[in-house]
Amino acid sequence: MQKAERFLALVGDIYDATLDPALWTDVLCDVRDFVGGSAAAVFSKDASTKSLNVYYHCGGVDPHYQQLYFDQYAKLDPSTTAHVLAEVERPISTVDIMAIDEFAKTRFFQEWGRPQGLIDFGAAVLDKSATGAAMFGIFRQGRHGYFDDEARCRMRQIVPHIRRAMLIGRAIDLKTAEASAFADTLDGISAGMFLVDADRRIVHANASGQALLDERCVLRAGGGRVVAIAADDDHELNQSLATAGGGDAAVGVKGVALPLTARDGDRYVAHVLPLTSGERRRAGAGYAATAALFVCKATLQAPSPPETIARHYKLTPTELRVLMAIVEVGGVPEVAELLGISQGTVKTHLHRLFAKTGTARQAELVKLVAGFSNPLVN
Questions:
Q1: In angstroms, rounded to a whole number, what is the distance separating the alpha carbons of residues 95 and 137?
Q2: For the CA atoms of the chain, what is the radius of gyration?
Q3: Is the domain of 164 the same as that of 197?
Q4: Whether residue 311 sits in one domain with residue 185
Q5: CATH code (residue 364)
Q6: Which of 297, 322, 354 is the last residue of a domain?
Q7: 269 shares its domain with 321
Q8: Looking at the structure, do residues 240 and 189 belong to the same domain, yes or no?
Q9: Which residue range forms the structural domain that includes residue 59?
Q10: Domain closes at, from 297, 326, 360
Q11: Which residues pair with 139 in a beta bridge?
Q12: pTM score, two decimals?
């Protein structure tokens, strides 16, 4: 019972952080302790530029090594391309990218991980784009051991809530939201926002939300209630709003991002935030609101060329990493230096790439990648 109560309290704190981002540091410390590790962070990576942005973090990585990562080791990190193949919300760790003994020989581990006592890193993709991904991750040191089944199970429990909170937080994009001016504060956001009561009635809609209702393209007001135009979508929306009235425990991990289809075929996505738990109760109480509904147009999530290539040829993360390095720098010695692995390891993966792609030379691999990047290339 105590474990269940602790988990529900943690979920409530995660959703409270959507309205007050200053809470994220403490929340991530609690999530780190729940999963097990020395540090936790929400960050984004761009595979094309090899850049990394850390949004929120707790514990762990010494500032000196943080700077070293940005300046020197980001390009050596084997996980840089891991998000390309990772499914959203699915926990991945070092062993999913490459063998532990192989990882232990890399420059990245020898020069950056080992001096800090780090042995493993578990992460999950929160959102993906054509070139990068937003992720949540936890570092583990020797005393924590490698990511095991229990750690993965706990990651699977908590990651959907972090994802929902981050997606809603991005839609809100506020520094703070005081309860006394909650609706007024939300009026300025670009996403359609609705405060609804236990009967699904709209008690407040911001300007963008009212515009969506007036257009009657994806949503409409029926009997004072918010209604999705597509019948199937409305059923799912009704369920999510109804369960939100029961608080964080009721809403669970289902329906993190509800897809909505407009009359013209355009795609929208809806996020539901319960307002009956945690500090959010103060925000909703003044409006008798049990949930906040955010609706915005969905962005096109076309797979990136590397992801398409990896799926088509069934490449492992390491094989994809070597392939992209071949395209970027060329020969085996240069790739070995870039990735911080031995030339023998590069040659092994290169032969596997030849076999899987039906090529025989590095130049053919370069042409293959170019063909996926540019549909006009034969």
A1: 15
A2: 23
A3: no
A4: no
A5: 1.10.10.10
A6: 297
A7: no
A8: yes
A9: 2-172
A10: 297
A11: 39, 121
A12: 0.77
- The three-state (H, E, C) secondary structure of the chain, written as one string: CHHHHHHHHHHHHHHHHHHCHHHHHHHHHHHHHHHCCCEEEEEEEECCCCEEEEEEEECCCCHHHHHHHHHHHHHHCHHHHHHHHCCECCCECHHHHCCHHHHHCCHHHHHHHHHHCEEEEEEEEEEECCCEEEEEEEEEECCCCCCCHHHHHHHHHHHHHHHHHHHHHHHHCCCCCCHHHHHHHHCCCCCEEEEECCCCEEEEECHHHHHHHHHCCCEEEECCEEEECCHHHHHHHHHHHHHHCCCHHHHCCCCCCEEEECCCCCEEEEEEEECCCCCHHHHHHCCCCCEEEEEEECCCCCCCHHHHHHHHHCCCHHHHHHHHHHHHHCCHHHHHHHHCCCHHHHHHHHHHHHHHHCCCCHHHHHHHHHHHHCCCCC
User: How many residues make up the chain in this entry?
Assistant: 378
Domain count, the chain: 3
User: CA–CA separation, 171 vs 20, rounded Å?
Assistant: 13
Q: Are residues 231 and 146 in the same domain?
A: no
pLDDT in single tens digits along all 378 residues of the chain: 577 778 888 998 998 888 788 899 999 999 999 999 999 999 887 766 666 788 899 986 788 888 888 888 877 787 766 666 778 888 999 888 888 888 888 888 999 999 999 999 999 988 876 667 888 999 999 999 999 999 999 999 999 899 888 888 776 654 444 444 555 555 656 688 898 888 889 988 888 899 999 999 999 998 899 999 999 999 999 888 888 877 776 676 666 778 899 999 889 988 888 888 777 776 666 667 888 888 888 765 556 777 788 888 888 888 888 888 888 777 888 888 877 788 888 899 999 999 999 988 888 888 888 877 654 343
d(CA 206, CA 193): 6
Does 378 fall in a domain?
no
CATH number, domain containing residue 225 = 3.30.450
- Indicate the burial class of 356 (C-beta count within 10 angstroms; 0-12, 13-18, 19 or more): middle
131, 31: one domain? yes
